[in-house]
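Good day; I would like, with your permission, to put a structural problem before you. The record follows directly beneath this note:
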Amino acid sequence: MFKKESRLGAREGFAMITMMIGVKISNTTPSMFAQTGANAFWLMPLISMSVILPSVILLYYLLKRYKDKNLVELTEHILGKHVGKFVAFLLFVIFFTLLAIEGRSYTEQLKMLYFPESPTPFIFFIFFMIAFYGAKRGLETIGSTAWAFFFYIKASVILLAFLALREVIFARIFPIFGNGLVPLLTEGAKKASLFSDIFLLAMAYTAFDSTKKFRKGVFSGFAFVFLEMTFFFLLYCTIFDYNSIDKVAFPFHEITQYVNMGNFFTNIETFFMIFWLFAALIKYMIYLYLISWIFGAVFNIKEFEPLILPFAFFGIVAGMVPENAVINELVFKSNFMDMITPFLIFFPFLLWVTAKFKGDLKR
């Protein structure tokens, strides 16, 4: 599918993983974490990262050892054709479900914040159709687009953080462990799937012009986005007091109401909304392309690009299942993140133990 002269390099991998994970600072994820972490929820990404990082490192170690294999090919090679396809299909189900749940989340944000009179299905349809149009252009185009917009999107984020610093009260981080260390550790570990996108991007391992550049881009992007997320979660904690932090549905967009750039710049939240929307669309372009690729690999469909449109449509249908935004976020999304975390943690270890038992790692 991808030739050796692929234009995808470390910078595209860096931009793609930062878009996929970094956009979560602007959705309802901070609010969901604050339900249990209270004013200490800024520590939860550190806990989640500590829990998931060994599995991520092990998975990418196996990809390096087996060289020219993507995520599905690696799984089938180690676990065997039938078991491997079953496990790979579970990966497809996981990421398709995340596509639907988080797609509904962004749709509800757009509706509540900017288009309150528009029907949710209509906004959902427009959002996914734009993502489909980008996804069908191919992974190289998506990667180049992510890199091209990276600096503009991050510049807007840095500008917002700079303008919001005047509202910060650092005393609000106390008590340092919020409602207690035990619930903080427990919930942080259960939500380790916060970084699940790094597993999905492993599907593109063979699409880059060198696997070394892919690993370099992804791991540097992973480190960058972890620091970015921790910083912004801390920013939210120091701007909103402990009584309100778990009641703010969209803290990123709420902050845009606090800042100003003088009397000549009104409705500044619209400026930040444009860059946030670009980042969300790029994320779903990547999602649509990679889940279609996983499905095609599982069922031996070499030309999988025609699957992108049906998956965009079914993503809309599945995303409309939750009755409202509250159920989607606090029931579907929260519980699903808890459910898939053990699978993502043990999946690489299953591959490693099986490969070790077969003697593949002795070479």
Remarks:
- The CA atoms of residues 167 and 252 lie 14 Å apart.
- The longest helix spans residues 325-358.
